[in-house]
Design goal:
heterodimer, A: 282 residues, alpha/beta, 7-stranded mixed beta sheet, 6-stranded antiparallel β-barrel, globular, B: 166 residues, alpha+beta, 4-stranded antiparallel beta sheet, 5 helices, 39% helix, elongated
């Protein structure tokens, strides 16, 4: 067996949970710090393999880079939905507890490449988490971009992530529209599929870069709708979720046709992903 | 909204496939209307004698569910067409509709449009071709919502496991 060229990505570092916020009934955002120095620099869209001690490891995209500057340690934020044994255990870690981190892995959203254009962000459910750094990056360098349009879909109003931040982003000039599948009596917003938000947004397809994240089927119908509007597939980016294990393109668990998603993704352009997302056995 | 109703119909992409004569005929059955927030446009089961092109605002389609009040099934925003029950017997609304914001719309007299469709099959076919994409688009959106679009693969696996255990 060949020796690993770089064993470092296989060894988790243990970071401390500095803060923990319950976003929804089953979703938690944790802020991680490395007691002995800065955590590695992630870029928006990249993911880490997070370890719950004694339970297991899962791939989770970064939801905040937490670079607070001013000489303070860099922090890393991850938003986790408790849907399995590992994510339930990770969600249960309280401030002061430890979480194993390997990474950063994979490709990022490449927000800088949208300079001079409108940014169109479409999120489905928990897919808003990996897109949060796109909003924050664009807002931090606001003059470099045109419109920032955020369209988010979720099952119910109670499932909406970052509801407080969405209001702040609105005040900061982000055009935010949210739709839900099932509304309660207090909901004053839209009800329907996330793609129904696209036409009323009045996008300029020739001058837009789109960032789409959510479950596969949501990304597919959304990217198709954006492409039908006239945004070139090469300027529509999606974040693929596959069975990432090693994170370093060694094990092949996350293979999607010619791609090893942990290395060649998770963020890929839709001209690459469209055909692969339609293959039954991939 | 500015311009005459006829000019607004002519300029709107929804009517782009119609001839000038067909658009002019439709304009003869149209009027500009405004709804205040909370104003009900129609009730489930009522006579489907109108349809609307929403120019600005938002309208919710709802259904009264005993014990749960008016449940919103979908909202329609600027640029959307509201109402297709006028196309098919029994010409009754299947849902109710209420303006959620101040809403500006062009309202069409559906009975008159229907008479034109019956009298002029070319006009009728063109009208049907306008509405078919709206109907299919909403059908597809409804089917996708049935799929639970926002469920992650992990959630679906967890649900399947729970169902298998029970």
């Amino acid at each position: 067996m060949a020796a690993l060229a770089d064993p470092a990505p296989a060894v988790p570092c243990f970071y401390r949970v500095a803060s923990r916020r319950e976003d929804t009934g089953d979703t938690v955002t944790v802020e991680l710090t490395e007691p002995d120095g800065p955590v590695p620099a992630f870029t928006p869209g990249q993911f880490a393999m997070l370890t719950a001690l004694g339970v297991g490891e899962v791939p989770i995209s970064v939801s905040g880079l937490g670079d607070s500057g001013g000489g303070r340690a860099r922090r890393l934020e991850h938003t986790l939905r408790a849907v399995g044994a590992v994510t339930r255990a990770l969600c249960a870690v309280r401030p002061g507890g430890l979480i194993g981190v390997r990474g950063p892995f994979g490709t990022g959203w490449d927000v800088a490449s949208a300079a001079g254009r409108d940014i169109v962000i479409v999120a489905g459910g928990i897919g808003l988490a990996p897109l949060r750094p796109v909003v924050l990056t664009a807002l931090a360098d606001r003059s470099r971009f045109g419109r920032i349009v955020l369209l988010a879909g979720t099952r119910t109003p109670a499932d909406l992530l970052y509801s407080g931040e969405l209001e702040q982003w609105r005040r900061d000039g982000v055009e935010v529209a949210v739709t839900v599948d099932h509304a309660d009596s207090g909901w004053g917003g839209e009800v329907g599929l996330v793609t129904a938000l696209i036409k009323p947004a009045g996008l300029a397809p020739g001058n837009s870069v789109a960032f789409v994240c959510g479950p596969d089927i949501m990304m597919r119908v959304t990217a198709d709708a954006l492409a039908a509007l006239g945004i070139p597939a090469g300027r529509i980016r999606v974040s693929l979720e596959r069975n990432m294990r090693c994170g370093a393109a060694w094990c092949g668990h996350c293979q999607l046709g010619p791609l090893l998603v942990c290395r060649d993704g998770p963020v890929v352009s839709y001209d690459q992903a469209a055909a692969l997302m339609r293959v039954r056995e991939l | 909204m500015t311009g005459t109703v006829a000019a607004r119909i002519s300029a709107h992409p929804f009517f782009a496939a119609l001839t000038d004569e067909q658009r002019a005929a439709l304009a003869g059955d149209a009027a500009a209307v405004m709804f205040t927030a909370g104003e009900r446009l129609f009730d489930e089961g009522g006579s489907a004698d109108r349809f609307w092109l929403i120019e600005d605002g938002r309208v919710a389609l709802d259904m009264r569910v005993p014990g749960r009040g008016d449940q919103i099934v979908e909202t329609l925003a600027s640029g959307a067409v509201l109402g297709w029950s006028w196309l098919h017997p029994p010409y009754r609304w299947h849902f109710g509709a209420v303006a959620r914001l101040v809403t500006a719309a062009i309202e069409f007299d559906a009975r008159s449009v229907r008479r034109r469709c019956d009298a002029d099959p070319a006009f009728g076919y063109a009208a049907l071709r306008l509405f078919t994409p709206v109907i299919t688009e909403r059908l597809q959106a409804t089917r996708l919502r049935l799929l639970d679009l926002y469920a992650s693969p992990a959630e679906l696996r967890q649900r399947e496991t729970q169902q298998a255990d029970t």
